[in-house]
Batch of 4 targets.
Target 1
Amino acid sequence: KVTALYCDHCNKRGFQRPRMVKHEKSCTANPERECGMCEWMHENDGQPHHGKSVSELCDVIGDGGDEGLKRLRKASNDCPACMLAAIRFMHSSEKTISMDTGFAGFVDCVPSLPFEWAVERDRWNSASAAILNEQQSDGGYQW
């Protein structure tokens, strides 16, 4: 008998409880997530964690566009996973019930952002590789 486990936030399926617990903790669909990429950067570069919740990151986006993306980059310390989490959170709350009018209708309130995961990930990978190269420069090993 095999038991499948599902993430409470994104419905990812797994079969090993420790792995699914780890996934749920950092899942980009989890509004209370703990970011492993930010933690790595803090441990290896001493860069302080931005300390913002997913909803706080959503707030900096404003009307979106290039300026919204710049604000999101700055607020998230260039962390692509935190940026993705904020964007996913915005899209998950895209269809919210409007209680202002007393009418239970749906509201489309998601601003457009020119976010490309691969581009943001590559920026982060370049920064992390530079940090590792600097750490390893004494030993002559290059990443």
Target 2
Amino acid sequence: MTTAAQNNEMHTLLDWNLKRNPEGGELVIAELMHQNNQFTQIVPFREANDGVGHKVGVRTSLPQAHLSAYGLRHKASHSTTAVITEPTAFAVTWAKVNADLAELNGGDPAILSEAAPHAEALAQLVENAMVNGDHVTDPLEPVGLAIRHSSLSGEAGKVTIDGGGTTNLQSIYLVGMGPGAVYGIFPKGSKTAGIQSDYIGKVSDQNDDGELLVHKWRWSQKFGLAEEDHRFTQRIANISLSDLEAGTGTTKNLIYLMKKARARVQSRFRIKVGPQGINHYWLMSSKMFEYLLHQIDSAVSQGSGIRYENVDNGFLKNVTMPTFMGVPIIFSEQILDGTEELVS
């Protein structure tokens, strides 16, 4: 007897029949569940330096300097440093396909039809963790981008801008990616920095009802996020989508907020450093980009338009991307609506 658990784990004969076209071939499936998640695709990755963790050293104070006169004595001093260990995470999804049903429905094409949705499910989980992960709340998650810029006061307040909204909130990030700033990490000794596919083979699958011959494989990714100097990244938080839709309220002017973020980064560092340096990207949802485009129309004459430019910065090679104020725009649908309001 086939149990409900088996039906959830594998396709039934009805499932396979629904995926066949009238001529008996494989039906072309529209992948409506795919998302535009570019942060994990574009952020540079490096191997962790401490097993499954990655140690980052930061200077926390400078030696003491003095105004002096000839002959006066002063005590020697030294700087202080701290070591932060960035954690990595492990994401996995398993697939099982009834071997007999697969052979009746074309063999390899039937098996491969499940590859795309499994890889997409894994990619969405990893993107969400890279943006929203909170290692303190859930030790299985890495430390995501949002939690690093989650206060309007203290040191975090210097790299977080208040959009002024209170309901239906989202964020825009100006992310500095590269050595010394934000980059992805994977455990030392890993085979790959990206998604790894392992075909286990045609094996016997056992449960209380007996055995079944299945094709079995696993997709997995080991990953994490590191941020060395947080000043390379700015978060514009508390952006009210309701205000943007109505065209009123304190968060209606995205262009002003984005110029403010760019000026904060520009005042300290060059916005683009080069192939081995820091490259900046605007990171936002597609919904936020839609609101930005609406506001851009009236600001083009002021030099604030969206341009589509060829990006070649060492990490990306000859890729045409939308840019704002010379900075490429990338998208993540894991920047979710309804985030909590950040307060001082």
Target 3
Amino acid sequence: MNASHKIPKPQHLVMNRTCLLGPLTCFPSNLSLGNRPLGNRLCFPLPSSSLYRRGVAVALMLLWFVLSPATSHAQTDSSLVLNSGTTVRGNIISASPESITLATNRGEREIGVGEIRQIRLANEPNWLNGAKTRYRENRYDVCYEQIVSEKLESDDPLVIQEVKYYLAMSAAQLAASGADVTTQQAGNLLLEFINNHPDSFNLFPAIETFADLALESGAFAKSVEFYSKLQGVQSPEFKQRAQLKLGKAKLYDSDYAGAKEALLSAETLETSDRTAQLIARCLYAQAISHTGETEKAITILHELIKNENSSQTELFAQAYNALGVCHLNNQDLKAARTAFMHTQLLFFTDRQSHAEALYHLHQISNMLQDSERSAQTRQTLKSRYRNTHWANKL
């Protein structure tokens, strides 16, 4: 990413031009015929015959659509691709954080936000659709650069919201990965979106991402505050994820009773996401190890590690980290080191868990006077995860 890019402010949005066909016919300023630009505006009188005027007017409108730029409106209806693979098209007549209501050719239809995989708005410019595609492909730098390099020519409030949302979300992903966008910049963009668009169908993911940033940067109380805003979400899977993250935030904030309650809720919610339930169990075991039930916690974790498939990288990284914390609470430094090394060597693709394991390995190495491993883990943590609270604790 070009480090010189500055995050644009929302006032960089301008109104679309309009062209009125009447007694004088006007071309938009960016049209040209052959090699001759038409200038700011080319207006000429039409002959008096009404039939002739109508014919020329139709021809000019056709010419406008042929020569209009690629950023013009690509479709008259919005299209929603559902998780089932079905595409629903229609005019969006209302939207909320929970659902979108469309006027379709079969009547009105309300669709829950949790059922929607992706949205293409009726007035959405092609460059924005391309940026959203890049975001879905995890190419956050390309999404971010594409948005900041364009000038939105629309007064459609839903399109404006989409631009702000994907700018903030791509910035947040870049900040989390240690790129040139800072956590403060990304957080400000997310807060602006959350505060200015409380009825957006993107509100809950924006709140979750802001809380994620706060958690990763060590602002545990702030992350608890924003995860708590998601308690009323209707989607069971989203609610489970929110409860899981709330429990983790409370665990890191040393609110072990609150963590146990949230994590039990996440584990017992009936959803199709069994991995989330098992991760909640790992963190629950870690929470009870802080309240005098360390042996019970170790038993829970050993049983999970024995019975589950180790191809579940995120789950096993969480399990071994929780086991390492349990051994630390038992003052067993070598057993703790072994547990954290499982994450470091085998399950390092989970970014958050890897950073946590490196931090604990650095601390344990210092206590065991292993200067070589201490220096190695510190260097990796500081270079690869410099924006995390684990790196900032050193």
Target 4
Amino acid sequence: MSSGFNLSDQTSRTWQQRADLCAAMIIRVSEPGKRISLADVGCGDMKLLGALQATGIALDYSGFDLRPQFPQVTTFELGRDRLNKTFDVVAILGVLEYVQDYQFALETAIHHGRHFVFSLVPSNLNTYTAADVTRLGWQNYLSEQVIDEALARIGASVLKKAITPDGRTMLWLCASYSSETPQGS
């Protein structure tokens, strides 16, 4: 993984919009009144926790990050480490671009969450040059189709896709088993 991770951008409005969109997707698969467990992998400054708390959802939150910004966050390297238990939802926002083995990262999510949500800046929505990708420290600049094919290979069922308001980032909500019926895009 890159050493930069573009953390200087974490106060950007678009990062909050991504967390808010993810929270709405998580609400979609939660049962009213039931507490959910969430692994927030690459949690950074825990924007997703705040977005979910604002909804009033009952939540058992676990944050994981390569560079924890808070003492309650567990040090974790996606692409190398495995989660130590299963969760109702695994969220991976703003991380897959930096992970060398994105397939392993998706497999971690499918094996440790009933549902998982992740984001990616797909190449079919953007026009980043090779120099941009290098400057950003990304290991992956993949198309939506490549990700969809990877999800099919691991048996994930895509329940919903959404694009952030700025049109640059896509989020996927998936079930960790193929028996769940897709609910549209």
